[in-house]
Amino acid sequence: MIEQVAIAFERKEYQTAAKLLKQLVKQSPQDPWVQFYVGRLYEVSGKQQEAERIYRQLLQTTTHNKILSQARQGLQRLKEVEEEERLRAIAKATAEPNNTEPGILVLEPISNEIKAIAAPKFAQIMQLDAYTARLLLPTRHWKLYRTGQVGELQYYGEQLQQAEIPCFWTSIAAIEQIQVFQVQYFSEANLQPTVVCRNQENQLGSLTFNWSEVTARVAGLLPIFEQVVDVNAKHQLERKTQTQDYAQFCDLHIPERHCILRLSDNSYEFQQGIEIAAQASHNTIRINWNQVLNWLEQQLPQVKLWSDFTPFAETILEQTELLSNITPHIHLFRREQSNWDAAFQLYSGLVFNKCLSIANNEN
User: Model pTM greater than 0.85?
Assistant: First the structure.
């Protein structure tokens, strides 16, 4: 009867093959040829996962060379079909003009327990080996995983989310569209605070808002580099670039106005506006800045503080092409341009768009 099944498959008479296999499965369920043709029936019926499971099982349980060869060919066909479907889906996802814009896909951290379950799914979706997939999944901080057309990244991101692997994606254009105001000082507080600030054209003005409009705080340290003279191992003088200090930044996100209020210990005018920092002649910038941060925390006790900028930045500093497309909106005196500045704008922009997306989905 197995010969009749083979002939039915050759003639593409799949209903006939199915009837014959129904009898054979009852009579000889362990027969590797019966199992193989059950796999073939799944394959031609579009049940790819079931077919793959049977083919792989045969590779582990049988020593029959012809069956092993047929199972390998079956797996190869399934792989080719999967690749064709993937390419069609990506082509559809990038068909809209906006979906061809450059974007980024970010993986969010998961626990080690979940990682063990997620790694095989991640490997299958991204076509990786299991070991590499496990190494790539982060457990502590965000990880910029891939850049490319935002439509393609959305395609992968939606598959990862369906597999319960947390991630999100955004276009570079969406980050560039966020307005950034450089806060000089707070001139009013209470329920409707007012900041004196400079816009992106460096024009001085003021902005009044409600504390309830602030949805996130983002903190970050940006290294300040200086050229120093040092003595090398050969007792020769040489110039080196070293980190001499750090500039501290704090962004307040106001998505309703699609803007960020950016404060920095390097530019905040502590002697102007309302008295936040206790006035004392011996106060350092660090003391004054900490008092400003404490005051902001008192005004925004329920607003989440995002402070994982440094570990995120350390993984993307070499992505010069990506960061060159990000306008930093950081005004530090630097002898040479630094990718740290664009990295902070990217991190803050990612937080901004992620929180905005969550809010929109909830509404």
Answer: no
